[in-house]
Inverse folding.
């Protein structure tokens, strides 16, 4: 005859075993789903927080970069010596961005040096983000300034502001610049 | 006979069953949302600054799978106690991660359901704590089919 305590302990151990089995099964399912995912993650690649990667600051201690309004930026867009840099995530960039904008994501780009090389010769670089959370554009702008870009601005209102003012990629104003910069 | 699977359902047992299914749906929805954009999820997890950079990738890959399996088991009422225990453990970890980030003044998206960024706030913490309570209640009161605690002690 088993005591209540013995049964309870046995049930607890059995439950923990089952929980471990469920966790292992779930992890295996996650691995399988990632393997077949079109944008599956590289399992072993280290991923740093935005601030640690030097491409995004969430705590907000970056030295402010001068902002530029969307209308003024749109006027600069016709100048091929001006480049736009998208500091948002890859998925946000893929969903829509300023025409011709380079993507410098918060976690850093796999080919970062080549990306920065594409900005050589640009007199002005306008960085933007989604203007909602971390000051990603400010941080990327800081990095660009450190890399030698003399005139770096941050787009006031970010991508949402750009869209609100009717200055989306669909305007095509930057297409020529885009072709020029990324043949 | 279990609290929620017996033939004589009480209002409490019915409420627990509804809570179990609701929790399961929530976990499944969260998993599907996270699976949409693994890179975004990795970024969200990294921004908590709790997990070492080398472990963010493995966690990003496995977390949605575990959530999906836990959600499915809770919805089906199979291995309910184990699934609810795992759900409670995950919710406790999420809550601790949120609290430490908010305490340090880190402004971040919670990454709870993937998709559009949802700011992590004190409301997120309260929500996770409430869900933790639901998970504990389900683990305690709703053993479901094939759960280890289904047998009563011998008299």
């Amino acid at each position: 005859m088993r005591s209540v305590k013995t049964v309870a302990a046995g049930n607890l151990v059995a439950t923990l075993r089952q929980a471990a089995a469920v966790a292992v099964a779930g992890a295996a399912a996650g691995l399988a789903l990632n393997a077949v995912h079109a944008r599956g993650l590289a399992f072993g690649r280290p991923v740093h927080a935005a601030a640690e990667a030097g491409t995004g600051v969430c705590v907000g201690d970056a030295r402010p970069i001068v902002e530029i309004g969307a209308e003024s930026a749109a006027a600069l867009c016709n100048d091929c010596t001006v480049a736009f840099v998208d500091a948002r995530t890859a998925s946000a960039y893929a969903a829509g961005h300023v025409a011709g904008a380079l993507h410098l994501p918060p976690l850093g780009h796999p080919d970062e040096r080549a990306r920065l090389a594409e900005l050589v010769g640009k007199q002005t670089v306008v960085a933007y983000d989604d203007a909602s959370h971390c000051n990603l554009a400010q941080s990327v702008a800081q990095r660009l300034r450190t890399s030698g870009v003399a005139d770096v601005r941050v787009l006031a209102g970010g991508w949402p502001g750009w869209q609100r003012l009717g200055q989306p990629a669909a305007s095509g104003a930057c297409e020529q610049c885009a072709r020029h910069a990324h043949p | 006979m279990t609290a929620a699977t017996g033939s004589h359902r009480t209002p409490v047992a019915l409420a627990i069953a509804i809570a179990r299914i609701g929790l399961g749906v929530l976990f499944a929805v969260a998993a599907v949302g996270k699976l949409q954009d693994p890179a975004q999820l990795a970024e969200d997890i990294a921004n908590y600054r709790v997990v070492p950079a080398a472990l963010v990738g493995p966690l990003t890959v496995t977390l949605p799978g575990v959530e999906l399996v836990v959600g499915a088991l809770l919805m089906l009422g199979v291995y309910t106690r184990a699934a609810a225990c795992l759900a409670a453990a995950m919710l406790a970890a999420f809550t601790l991660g949120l609290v430490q980030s908010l305490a340090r003044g880190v402004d971040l998206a919670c990454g709870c359901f993937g998709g559009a960024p949802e700011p992590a706030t004190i409301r997120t913490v309260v929500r996770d704590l409430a869900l933790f309570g639901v998970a504990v209640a389900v683990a305690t009161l709703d053993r479901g089919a094939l759960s280890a605690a289904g047998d009563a002690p011998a008299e």
The two ends of chain B are 16 Å apart (CA to CA).
